[in-house]
Prior knowledge:
Layout: E1 2-4, H1 6-10, E2 15-22, E3 39-48, E4 51-65, E5 72-86, E6 97-99, E7 104-106, H2 107-118, H3 154-164
Parallel strand pairs: 5-6
Antiparallel strand pairs: 1-7, 2-3, 3-4, 4-5
One zinc ion is lined by residues 66, 68-69, 71, 124-125, 129.
Amino acid sequence: xxxxxxxxxxxxxxxxxxxxxxxxxxxxxxxxxxxxxxxxxxxxxxxxxxxxxxxxxxxxxxxxxxxxxxxxxxxxxxxxxxxxxxxxxxxxxxxxxxxxxxxxxxxxxxxxxxxxxxxxxxxxxxxxxxxxxxxxxxxxxxxxxxxxxxxxxxxxxxxxxxxxx
Length: 165
Ligand SMILES: [Zn+2]
Ligand SMILES: [Zn+2]
């Protein structure tokens, strides 16, 4: 979506609502296409006393196998974007200002890069996910196994022996 901001820049007190969905289902991350449902974008662009600002709430659902147990998991995330828009800026580039030289903002491009930056480094079905036993391969969220003790660091095993006695 390209947002034409001419009327916003021209009139103090003016505002425009933004409410749309952006399809990122063809975006690949580490071999999967995790953004199966469209990214929802809502917010507004407004001119307050000559300062044009953009406030966006970007929500997306990340669907992929859990990094620990491999079970398919969906988790919702959201990014709040709060920026100022300017036709040009003097001096250095700023993180808080987006320049829109022709008063047009490519919202898709902005949303795309924000989502890509926000994709969690770790994707877990649950923060408490116990993962898979490296010895027997059981999903420890569903069943217990008896080989856990074998994974203990040998130095800690000695301590566990002492505590057992
Ligand atoms: Zn998991
Ligand atoms: Zn096991």
